[in-house]
TrEMBL record:
Residues 43-288 form the Glycoside hydrolase family domain. InterPro entries: GH, Glyco_hydro_5. It comes from the Bacteria. It holds the Pfam family Cellulase. One of its GO terms (biological process) is polysaccharide catabolic process. The keyword ATP-binding does not apply. Belongs to the glycosyl hydrolase 5 (cellulase A) family. Keywords: Glycosidase, Hydrolase, Signal. This is Endoglucanase. SUPFAM superfamilies: (Trans)glycosidases (SSF51445). GO terms for molecular function: hydrolase activity, hydrolyzing O-glycosyl compounds.
Amino acid sequence: MVRLKLLIVVLMCVAGRLVAQPALSPVAKNGALKVEGGKIVNRQGVAPQLRGISFSWSLWGGRKYYTPETVDWLASDFKVSIIRAAMGIQPDSGYLQYPQQQKQLIVNTVNRAIKDGIYVLIDWHDHNANQHLKESKLFFAEMAKKYKGVPNVIYEIWNEPARVNWDTVKNYALQVISIIRKYDADNLIVVGSPNWDQDVDVAAADRITGYKNIAYSFHFYASDPNHQQHLQDKANKAIKVGLPLFVTEWGVGESNGDGEFNMAKTTAWLKWMEANQLSWANWNITDKHETTAILQKGAPATGRWTANQLTPAGAYIRDKLRELNR
């Protein structure tokens, strides 16, 4: 009996089935997330500071890593407490063209994260989500029905709004949030902000009201010369007035995914996230030849990567995850 309790500590209903959370897993320890006092907190009211990795766009080369084995390896070897399933919407082979195929990739990934007891961001990975409101509402309605009350699941409803104003982002968000809350009253929802999730200070001045458990995404690329103190100041301003932030994407390189990997700048940003107890997902699981990719070309889609199959970014992020998520 004692052994049984050590193996299973949480049972939940997913699509009509009881699913166990592994003992001592991030979700078993923290439970459902909520927003309190301007922070994302766990069931004990403490900021859990989740740390993990984002899958790449579910298009092109990054798509091959959307496998159960990859999720398992990230949970067991990289020690992630969260992953991000970045469902590409456009231009090629995305959700707009192949909705069932793309949706199945996400569902398979989410279900494996639940099995492994880690959190998962369901990310509508679209710079132009306001142009695809109908499709987004249908997708998130289905996800909310499927994962209602499952504490692993977080809805990220618009990745990196581009050059649009906050009114546009807010109007889109309110419509999608209302659909999610029709079916899932409690799970955390992450809202984007203008200028590729950088203008969180603008969102903080006119935040969404009328709904609970709403957080806001903040993105940066640590080595980018345009993503330094002035960008951190924007986030500090938002934090100071109590806007709950979630760093749903950041990279060690520059904003194009490539460029320099500046260790000093990366270390400074990482220390900043730790000091502010911000949860984060690093970009990204791919073997594309660029700075922020964590895998060398040809690394298998089944996990179990050797040291030689990790890029400098991959080795660094793995070390940091294993150190910080102990």
